[in-house]
Design goal:
single chain, Rossmann fold, nine-stranded antiparallel sheet, five-stranded parallel sheet, 18 strands, globular
Length: about 400
């Protein structure tokens, strides 16, 4: 059994719990990033993470290894980030890091040491069951601590990846983890939780992106609330039998042109911004704060609007192309023509939202019971049945 030691309290306690349960535990630290541009040095540096992981392994008296996956991390995670921002989409590097690094490359390194399982400090659970044909399946469940549930970040894992993974903290709440760490005198007991990009740390995003995406000064156009052309939207949960034209109308992103608003200033590059963003616009003198409505990367125009309740920020639905759909439970994948009601979230920690999913040949349409603020292309929509995460997909629009 190899435990991914990150230098934080969660992975430290996970390793301790597994050792108590009788597993032969090996600690392994992933060295995934060597760059420094844009990284904000603070309480938790990458060097300190590695030192703390080593101290935890020593305290628990378990073997300790370091594996350098930085080359593949840059290719699979960081280059993906740059490519998505360049397209005007907002990536989720934590989701991709789990799919491509922790539960793929890291697992392979663990297997080379003779391990048959890997464990991390994620607040999530795995259960086993049988599908309708009697085949063994693995169920990805939300963590018991709803304030820390991290199943969203695991939404792209496959059945194979779940089959060799353990999440010892899934039944545990964060305050209890802190108490356990203190009782064991672990050096990570009082460390702050990590923030920022997975394995990179907290960054100044524009500076970080400028490593590859150069500044492109352009216009900021402010779109007024009054008179914004929002089409008629149905109230409540839409019915099952909607035609394709209606589905497309309700999930197509709003369009913007400079003639709809007025010039409000300049920006450093539309590709540095995301839908719903408030910080970094740097334009004041308004009754309400400005939010990004749409970063038009093609024309390098940043469309903004006043207020959290701007109608352009609130939409009824979204679309996921067929090739960017992923079913954690492939036995429950929806065939074209079917619709189902699930609980959906479009960002981490968002309360689950009731929605109807419509499967078509071209992909999946999701229409919500309530309007959703800040539906962001490039982010992941994730759907649940009760506690179980069934599938996910990249929001196309």
């Amino acid at each position: 059994m190899v435990v991914g030691l990150s230098g934080g309290v969660d992975s430290s306690v996970a390793a301790s719990l597994l050792k108590e349960r009788g597993y032969e535990v090996i600690g392994m630290f992933m060295r995934n990033w060597h760059g420094g541009e844009g990284v904000l040095e603070g309480d938790c540096t990458r060097e300190e993470d590695e030192m703390m992981a080593r101290l935890v392994a020593r305290r628990l008296d378990i073997p300790y290894y370091v594996v350098d996956l930085s080359k593949e991390y840059r290719r699979r995670v960081v280059d993906y980030m740059f490519a998505e921002y360049e397209r005007g989409r907002t990536p989720n590097p934590d989701v991709m890091c789990n799919r491509e690094i922790k539960f793929d490359l890291f697992a392979r390194e663990a297997f080379r040491l003779g391990a048959d399982l890997i464990a991390t400090g994620h607040y999530s659970r795995i259960a086993t069951g049988r599908d309708v044909r009697g085949n063994r399946i693995y169920r990805l469940l939300a963590g018991v601590d709803r304030n820390k549930d991290q199943s969203y970040f695991l939404c792209q894992l496959s059945q194979e990846q779940l089959s060799y993974s353990l999440f010892p903290l899934g039944e545990t709440e964060k305050p209890q983890v802190r108490r356990l760490a203190s009782g064991l005198h672990l050096p990570t007991a009082t460390r702050k939780d990590s923030q920022g990009i997975c394995f990179v740390g907290k960054v100044d995003l524009p500076t970080f992106l400028q490593q590859q995406l150069k500044p492109r000064p352009g216009r900021v156009v402010e779109i007024p609330k009054e008179g914004f052309p929002v089409p008629p939207l149905p109230e409540g949960l839409p019915p099952a039998g909607l035609d394709d034209a209606t589905l497309r109308r309700l999930t197509t992103p709003y369009t913007f042109t400079p003639e709809m608003g007025m010039s409000a200033g300049e920006h450093r590059g539309a590709h540095y911004f995301t839908v719903g963003q408030r910080r970094g616009i740097n334009i004041g003198g308004r009754k309400e704060p400005l939010f990004v409505l749409y970063p038009d990367v093609q024309h390098n125009i940043l469309y903004v609007g006043q207020g959290h309740d701007h109608p352009a920020l609130n939409r009824k639905g979204l679309f996921i192309t067929r090739d960017e759909l992923h079913w954690v439970r492939p036995d429950l994948a929806m065939p074209p023509g079917e619709s189902r009601i699930y609980q959906v979230r479009i960002r981490y920690r968002q309360p689950l939202q009731k929605a109807r999913l419509y499967m078509r040949e071209e992909g999946m349409y999701i229409l919500f019971e309530q309007l959703q603020r800040g539906i962001t292309p490039g982010q992941f929509a994730v759907w649940y049945h009760e506690d179980e995460l069934l599938g996910s997909g990249v929001i196309a629009g």
